[in-house]
């Protein structure tokens, strides 16, 4: 077996035995096969969270999604708890069978490789590259946005591996700039150049968790940071959060 094949991050793993995951997968399958999608967002819980509603500002992700993506025929293909293996399985079992040719893809995956699985940056990078290559092979004329893995405050080891992983992804994307666009989202979760725990939802949960998932206000920052690139690739007009939603979500 070659060393690359030994990388566990590149081998597809199903989660169909988990009821909510299976139901979500089948529901999304029906959508992409029968409804035109222009903007496709693949990911894990951070992407899945775009569908969350809540009475408090930090919980209300859906308002931000509607403002930026509601009229762009966008689909959320984020699955809570997924890592590169699970996303690869989805791609191999129908998540590329679109009704039309999507215009832009976004891939945000990898936090669970480092955290939940304890895989190193090199392994996670291999899984992400495999995902990007499979999507590009299926839709060579559609650009793909590859955001860096978001910073967190889980452990010093995860922080160091996140930095290494993002360097690898930036290096991988550089010679493929015609269709692959790496973008650093770390500033969206920082204050004064340091990761800001107040921009995460986990400490607000009961029981509280380590800062990993951006709150809705931070997701609004992410959407605003991505907007110029998405707007250009879609050849669309700029989208913004408008008052009073902007103030509600803490976006100036």
Automatic annotation (TrEMBL):
Entries under SUPFAM superfamilies matching the protein: SGNH hydrolase
Protein origin, superkingdom: Bacteria
InterPro entries named among the record's database cross-references: SGNH_hydro (IPR013830), SGNH_hydro_sf (IPR036514)
Gene3D superfamilies (alphabetical): SGNH hydrolase
Pfam families, per the entry: Lipase_GDSL_2
Coiled coil feature spans: none
Record-annotated SGNH hydrolase-type esterase domain positions: 42-214
UniProt protein name: SGNH hydrolase-type esterase domain-containing protein
Organism in which the protein naturally occurs: Novacetimonas hansenii
């Amino acid at each position: 077996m070659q060393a690359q094949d030994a990388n566990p991050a590149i081998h597809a793993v199903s989660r169909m035995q988990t009821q909510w995951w299976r139901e979500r997968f089948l529901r999304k399958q029906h959508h992409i096969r029968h409804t035109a999608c222009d903007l496709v967002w693949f990911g894990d819980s951070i992407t899945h969270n775009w569908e969350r509603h809540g009475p408090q500002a930090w919980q209300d992700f859906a308002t931000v999604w509607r403002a930026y993506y509601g009229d762009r025929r966008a689909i959320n293909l984020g699955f809570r708890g997924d890592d590169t293996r699970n996303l690869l399985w989805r791609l191999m079992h129908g998540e590329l069978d679109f009704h039309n040719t999507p215009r832009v893809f976004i891939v945000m995956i990898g936090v669970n490789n480092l955290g939940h699985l304890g895989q190193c940056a090199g392994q996670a990078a291999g899984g992400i590259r495999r995902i990007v290559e499979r999507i590009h092979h299926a839709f060579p004329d559609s650009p793909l946005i590859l955001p860096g893995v978001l910073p967190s405050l889980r452990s010093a080891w995860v922080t160091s591996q996140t930095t290494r992983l993002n360097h690898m992804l930036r290096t991988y994307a550089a010679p493929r700039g015609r269709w692959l666009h790496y973008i650093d989202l770390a500033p969206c979760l920082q204050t004064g150049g340091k990761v800001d725990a107040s921009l995460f939802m986990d400490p607000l949960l009961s029981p509280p968790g380590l800062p990993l998932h951006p709150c809705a206000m931070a997701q609004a920052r992410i959407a605003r940071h991505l907007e110029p690139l998405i707007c250009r690739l879609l050849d669309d007009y700029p989208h913004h959060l408008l008052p009073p939603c902007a103030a509600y979500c803490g976006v100036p």
